[in-house]
Amino acid sequence: MKRDLITSREAAGSRIDKFLSEAYPEYSRAFLQKLLRDGQVQVDGKTVKSSFRLNGDETVSFEVPEPVEAEICAEPLPLDILYEDSDIIVVNKPKGMVVHPAAGHLSGTLVNGLMYHCQDQLSGINGVLRPGIVHRIDMDTTGVLVVCKNDFSHNSIAEQLKVHSITRVYYAIVFGNLADDAGTVHAAIGRHPTDRKKMSIHAKNGRDAITHYHVLERFGTYTYIECRLETGRTHQIRVHMASIGHPILGDTVYGPARQPYHLEGQTLHAGILGFIHPRTGEYMEFSAPLPEYFEELLQRLRKQA
Asked: How many Å apart are CA 14 and CA 52, to the nearest integer?
């Protein structure tokens, strides 16, 4: 399907990727950037890349490729379902499960299990490898995740994420004793300048990121905190807490290489997720209890404090 749009003079100076994401909110920015990388976007008949800036009064055209049949397999995996209807499914993701297939993780992911459970009734906006996925959490992060069964619900949840109206509360144990009982880290996050597998607050093209934290318990060497997200950048809480000298316990990427307690991954749990239901317009909030390993570690720290 081909899309054509004549730009206005007000668009002069705008980057083509930003212009398209604002003009076509039904498509994710990642999807549009992929079209640009693949040479599928033309301005006045000439192929352009993401960095191209408009002059105004131009014709922007792009081809939306036909959906490709997914090459990933549905698998009968155990799912902890917190809520489900014809539009959305809310799950409690366990530790160690990857959200969607990628290099090195083509099976055993949440998407593999959802494809089996939902019988392919998942939104297709984010492509064949990420059906239904509108947001995600890291492999070793546990907790609440909403998945969309159709494009209508996907667009609704994506818009709420874009305007930061979704409630997202995480629980974490960090190194050190925080000086204040509450605080905010406001620092842009982007790809690390030298290590492309990491994120950093020192990136040249970082995106605005805000994390509010609140101390729940102090153990001297460690602190149990609650984090509320205004934005949802990749590794946001992990990067922000490490940036103020309090990396998350168990995080060998942004914290010490050698970690105590033989943990496998960071102690980070998505405990609460709240949003407006796409169909009913009602606010819904879901919570997932701390996983067993997390509770046991807290009990151990309380005894040692």
From this structure: 8
Query: By three-state DSSP, how is residue 234 classified?
Result: coil
Indicate if the alpha-carbon torsion angle 161, 163, 166, 171 is positive or negative: positive
DSSP character at residue 9: G
Distance CA 173, CA 169 (A): 14
Ranges of residues in the chain with a pLDDT under 70 are 1, 8, 26, 66-71, 103
Q: In this structure, what token pair is assigned to residue 49?
A: 């890349």
Q: Which of these, 144, 77, 135, lies nearest to 110 by C-alpha position?
A: 77
Q: What is the pLDDT of residues 172-189, one digit of tens each?
A: 999 999 999 999 999 999
Look up the pTM and report it.
0.77
Spatial distance between the Cα atoms of 57 and 54, rounded to a whole number of angstroms: 9
Catalogue the active-site residues. 138
Sign of the dihedral defined by the CA atoms of residues 130, 132, 136, 138, in that order: negative
Q: Say if CB 190 and CB 200 are below 8 A apart.
A: yes
Cα 160 to Cα 13, 134, 164, 213: the distances in Å are 27, 11, 6, 22
The residue count for the chain: 305
Give the C-alpha distances (Å, rounded to integers) separating 222 from 71, 88, 213, 257, 262. Answer: 44, 37, 15, 17, 15
Where do the domains of the chain lie, and which CATH numbers do they carry? 2-63 (3.10.290.10), 73-158 (3.30.2350.10), 164-305 (3.30.2350.10)
